[in-house]
Design goal:
Elements (H helix, E strand, L loop, with lengths): L16 E10 L3 H9 L4 H4 L4 E5 L12 E6 L2 E11 L7 E9 L8 E12 L3 E11 L1 H8 L4 H22 L1
Antiparallel strand pairs: 1-7, 2-3, 3-4, 4-5, 5-6, 6-7
Amino acid sequence: MNAINWPEGFVPGFTDNFVSNEMIIAGLSVSDVWPFLNQPFLWPDYYKNSADVRFYDNKGPELENGVRFYFSTFGFPVESQVVEYVPPAEGQPARVAWHGWSGEENAADRLDVHHAWLLEDLPGNRVRILTQETQNGQPAKALAATRPNPMLNGHQEWLDGLVAAAMSAKKA
């Protein structure tokens, strides 16, 4: 199976917080799931921890390489920019990742994240959805020390909602 591509400064084990969530689901494909991940305006419909989505520079409603967007999650206003974008294609995993930040640079409450998603079709009519996030900054240290880690549970809710939305659309 494939792995997340990590940029310098965000490699797991060398950051203040890291979470990894993964699901393998029978009966879905990357093409079933991708539209619900690729359109941030849909996130609040199936993931209650996402709100206030907007795009900059007359972009959207879909993500694309380099696009800037904003959303709020976990009580943080998150400015984001897509840094990796590989839409679904036969024989390769779909990927999307963004650098997100909250707070002013060098401020005590600054949070920097790399949130990556990998979707790949598997044999037997299954899809694998992997989401991993690394974080740097004081807020990340606080999240990492909390049990259970709110990011781990929050991202599981995101995955559960994503899968449910894709399943529901496929049945419609």
